[in-house]
Each structure stands twice: as structure tokens, then as C-alpha cells.
Amino acid sequence: MTSKKWIIAAAAVIAICSATSIFTLAKDNAIKQGYSAAEPVASHAVRQANGEVSQLLRDDAGHDTMNNQDHAPQSEIETPEETIAESDDHIIHITGIQTNEGTYDHLKLETPAFSRSLPGYNVTNPTYAPQIICEDVNGDGNKESVVILTTGYGTGVYRSDVVVYNSEGDRIPVEDANTAFLKQFDGSFNGQGLTLNVHGQSYQVPYALILTDRTRLNGRPQIGSIMQYAVTGGVLTATTAVQISPAEFVGDLAVTYTFKNGRLQAGSATFELYPEYSS
To answer: Span of the secretion signal (predicted)?
Structure first.
């Protein structure tokens, strides 16, 4: 018996229903593989920068002491914007500037109707390029531009964010999925095993079905190392995996978004326990 585990694989090539990237490998990023107790969980710190070093670079590269003039830093001159993703019909593009931290920053969404700066960043690995999805997610009869950004990845780690603009270029607020899950999810270990509570429903997993030794279990079940957004049939969803140890996951939490009061709001969470954990 093997545990289902979320692992981000660079070779994962799963078709996205309504969007593609300029890179042929940029598809759905999360897959499950067999559990290995010896396999560590690696998290990429994709937004770390040394402020002192950055300031020194600006001082050295940005000031002409001979003429007492300021110029653009050399790093900016040598790092032009790149097109890093495009829609299926090739009319919507995302550009960005590559940083030394392994990310694209200063993201910009270009459509035939509008141009907008995108908040956030995306990792530079082309396998995890931004996804552009054009579907009507707010029910107004027009297609919105949904952008899904990958902000971190690794073994057992996949983090993403979503940004949505309506057909006129106005940003539609999206409730944070992790916050929505935490409001509806709780869990603990007791003498018999694992207990999970999701939106008023309880799930039990006995220790006999858990592969991780008790001494290596987390203090409490956790979520957040996996966070994946998707759009199918005009419906925005978010999924996260419930983690009980550095390398073992027992099921998936999911929420479906609906447009209400000018924003996309997460609904009631549902939970699917992986079959091998069902007693």
C-alpha cells in the first residue's frame, strides 16, 4: 500500500482545459507519487533579497560621480522585459523582468483591450510559467482574464496565486484560498489516530493506516504547502492537500468560487480522503 503524496515534477505534462503557456511544458503542476520516508520536502525561497546589497548595487551602478548624474542601474539595462506566457489564441501576453532570485518580477498583462501591471511574481522555471485562462467566471456574459502565477515549487511543495481582470480591465478581488480553508478546517492526533474536521464533518484515520512513524508526525495536520487554482467550465476552484508529516498527505480540500458583491468568494470546503486512508 502506498500513500498518495503531492510532488511537483518538472516532467509533469497535464493538459490545461482552456489555457496554455508560451512554454510547451507549462501545464498542471501538481501530481501525486508514492510515499518515500527518506525523501525530504524542499521549499524554494523565491522572494529573498538582501536589502543592503541591493542598495549598494544601486549606489554603485546608478550614479555617475564624474558628471554628478543619476543613471538607470546596469542590471536594469541588461535585463529587458521578456514574454513569458501567452493565451491559446496568442492575443494575450504576460511579460516580466528576470531577477537574480529565480523569479520574474514587474509582470505585465497585455490584452487587445487593456494593459495592466500584475501584482506578484512568477518563478522562472518554464515548466511553471503563468497560466492565462479566458473564461466567464463572474457570470456577466464576457470572458475574464484569469492569470495563475506559480510562486514556489519543490518536492511536496507547490504554491500559486490567482489574479482576475474583467473584460474592461478592472481587477476582480478573489478571496484568499488559504484563509477560506483555515476557517473551515481543523484536525488533531489522539490516542487512536488522526481526526479531521471539515465544515462540520468529521473524518478518522487510524494509526495503522498512517505510514509515517508517530515520532515524525506533525504536531497537527497542516495545509498550505500545496495550493493550486484552476478554472473549469467558467468555475474557479482552489485545492490544497492535508499534510500530516514532511512527506505524507492524506487527502484534498477544495473550494469553489462564486461571484458575489463584486468579488469572487470561496464557498463551503469539501474534503476527499485518499482511498488508502479509509478504514
So the answer is: 1-26
Q: How far, in Å, CA of 43 to CA of 152, rounded?
A: 7
pTM of the model: 0.73
Q: Could you list the residue range(s) of the whole structural domain that residue 256 is in?
A: 5-32+74-277
Rounded Cα–Cα distance for residues 277 and 264 (Å): 33
C-alpha pair distances (Å), 137 with each of 42, 142, 153, 174 = 34, 9, 26, 11
Which SS3 state, helix, strand or coil, does residue 99 take?
coil
The fraction of the chain above a pLDDT of 90, given in percent, is 68
| pLDDT above 80: residue 119 | yes
Model pLDDT, residue 278: 86
* 64, three cell numbers: 555617475
Q: How many domains would you assign to the chain? A: 1
Please check whether residue 233 lies inside any domain of the structure.
yes
- Residue 45 domain-assigned? no
Backbone torsions φ then ψ of 215, nearest 5 degrees: -70, -15
Say if 44 falls within a structural domain: no
